Every structure is written in C-alpha cells, then in structure tokens.
Amino acid sequence: MEPKEPELDAFIIEFKVFNPRKDKSLEDTVEAALIQIEEKQYETELVKKGIPAEKIRKYGFAFEGKNVLIG
Predict the structure, then answer these.
(1) pTM of the model
(2) Is the pLDDT of residue 44 over 80?
(3) How many CA atoms are closer than 13 Å to the CA of 64, on its beta-carbon side?
C-alpha cells in the first residue's frame, strides 16, 4: 500500500495459507511470506516512486482456518 503523503509509511503485505505438506507451523508460513517479499523484490516500485526503504513495512500473514499469525 502506497502512502498518500510521502512522510508516511508504505506497507507490503503477503498472505499465505498454511499448508502442512510444505510448512511445519504457522511460523514457517509467515517466514515463507516474508521470504517471498524479499525474493520478488516487491519494494522496488515503491523505492522507484521515491519512498525510502526504511519507510517500507513488510508483513507476512499466515492463515490456518480461523487462526492467523502476523510477522
């Protein structure tokens, strides 16, 4: 999410559903979401628009039914 005001933070949010075949826990799923944000370089477009990297917040959301973990 890109801020309307340049002094505000931007947010990158990656949502993942827990898959017991790939991950051992919701923590692993959160970690996979954060790794994907870095590997796919989602912040690149925000930085190109002049948003400083330190103003970009990155969150991974992991879901397992009604259980949610945010990292």
Answers:
(1) 0.87
(2) yes
(3) 14
